[in-house]
Here is the input.
Amino acid sequence: MATDRAQVLLPYIRRLVRRNATAALTKITSRSHPADLAAVCRTLGGGERRALFEACANDERRAEILAYADLPIAVEILTGMGSVERVKAVLRKMARDDEADIIAQLPEELQQEVLAALQPSEQDQVEQLLGYPDDTAGGIMSPTPFALEKMTTAQVAIEKVRSAGDIEAGYYVYVVNEHGTLVGVISLRQLLLVPPERRLTEFMNTDVMSVRVTADQEDVALIVAKYALLAVPVVDDANKLLGVVTVDDVIHVIREEATEDILKRAGVTGGTELEEPVAPARAWRARMPWLLATMLGGVVGSVLIGQMEGRVRALGAVVAFLPVVLGMAGNVGAQSAALTVRWLALGHVEPGRFARTVLREVVVGAMLGGLYGFLLGGAAWVWGMAKGPAAATALYLGSTVGMSAAAGMTLAAALGSGLPLLFARLRIDPAAAAGPFVGACSDVLGIITYFAVAILMPLGPAAPAL
Here is the structure.
């Protein structure tokens, strides 16, 4: 496993850095996979990273390590190199999309110096990529797709593939017309099997799965995963071929989107704490906003309970079961929210089927509420019987707890599925609804439901006077 290799490499690299054993470090960096070296860099200190980077045999190996490294680490290493010429030499060995990602994070002064030092064609490609939002197909694509004119013969196409060297997305040959419009795609296997005199237009696949340059990166990842593609072409509104997104880019997107959703469900936004520890001030800014929803929900709940102070004293034992009822309802709401967000991310929920999704979760919530309402109600009844001989009081207690638990869990399921769907319809990230927001709403609604059931429940002759 890559992680195990990185853990094995770490102590050796640290020891060699301390001894200033440059020759041995060069040998390790040449024989180790760049992904393992990038993983080691996460643990090394700034000086150790620079020593490891300097020990690499050539700029190509340095570029490979940076391609796997976290962006903050890559920027730190390049910024510490001092010479713009050295920075440019390393970046030139990288794929254009990776190069643009790093340049976008460089300090502004260094960024301008690096851009000015690039060749005009390289500068145009990088600036084109920098012009697209980071989370779109344009922001993650490689602007150098391998494309051939549709009247090219198979033999000429094979020769061009051979002469192209290391091409981005070397799994497919994209076919364009004289205007650069994407008209077909051919796999390399298919290209090798046809007679050499046949033209591309005669055997190309015209049903090309492509994405618009403005498409969200998560939608691009869904298309690649759904159709098992190794790469997907990126086109403009006129279907002109602009670039290609490869499966390695998609893997990064899936990781980023999963991290972002997990952070939001935990009530953390704008931070990268799942990737690496961050400064306390940055962590505070990331976690603070969504905790406000939890605080407001708690304040509203406290106000509601305070308004019923007299009734709370009269209800007595009923109030003792409030925490467990709210906890069960909150868990059901969190489950429904997490599943709904996941279904939305995978495209399993169509816009016209929102009501069906909510209804399904309500049914599941009612079934769970029925089971656990019965169990909790039974426990409350047994507890009530143990406290005194009044069977009517015990029956009242058990019925109140059981019915409020069932109702609370059903309503929480509706909230947990309905809020993410509402957010999605309003074009707000639905993952934001799956965190403290759902929990706060479930608590407020649960308190209202609990006391409503307790007050409206028919009382036996020995029940407490309300």
Notes: Residues 460-466 have pLDDT under 50 and may be disordered.
